[in-house]
Amino acid sequence: DARVTQTPRHKVTEMGQEVTMRCQPILGHNTVFWYRQTMMQGLELLAYFRNRAPLDDSGMPKDRFSAEMPDATLATLKIQPSEPRDSAVYFCASGIRLAGRLNNEQFFGPGTRLTVL
Amino acid sequence: GNSVTQMEGPVTLSEEAFLTINCTYTATGYPSLFWYVQYPGEGLQLLLKATKADDKGSNKGFEATYRKETTSFHLEKGSVQVSDSAVYFCALSDKGSGSRLTFGEGTQLTVNP
Prior knowledge:
The complex is a heterodimer of chains A (117) and B (113).
Chain A: E1 5-7, E2 10-13, E3 19-24, E4 31-38, E5 42-50, E6 53-56, E7 65-71, E8 74-79, E9 88-95, E10 107-108, E11 112-116
Parallel strand pairs in A: 2-11
Antiparallel strand pairs in A: 1-3, 3-8, 4-5, 4-9, 5-6, 7-8, 9-10, 9-11
Chain B: E1 3-6, E2 11-14, E3 19-21, E4 23-26, E5 32-38, E6 44-50, E7 56-59, E8 62-65, E9 75-77, E10 86-93, E11 102-103, E12 107-112
């Protein structure tokens, strides 16, 4: 049963600390998305990658957030320094985008619940 | 740009009641339309989808029909169960967005026994 996995599931940290969230996309998927979900803003797209290359990170605060894909099986989202307003659930999703075909389904991980005190 | 508007929640129903959650969209192209469901403490899961006008997506008793003339994709279920309690998201994607999904605000559904 192929699934997107995310670690950690929960993270509590203090303001100013670095936070790293990890995501393992489904094997064979070439597109990875990072979302943030809060009660106030709903679901926001932060960044997404195709074939490990960043395509769009316009939704991400550039001064403190960074997203990378060191290899095809790992995506990371880092916040440095973290702030209380970063408290949210962060979701990773993966999908397949093939040339000449349209397949837009995204498969979501269980999320990382981040609390910054 | 693309946008999705869902009916405001929360929605509270009794078991076996009929469910409708309205969704309308604005898109520059010919989008694919989706309903995702999020159960408490979990990520979003695809519930159903439709890729062209007049297509009907269906799954687990839920249905939605792609209506191009009214730019709508309303979610319906004839008889809801307590286990359907969740947040439902309408979303769209078109060729120009390159796999990106535009989500609605989400509608919280609570079904009481």
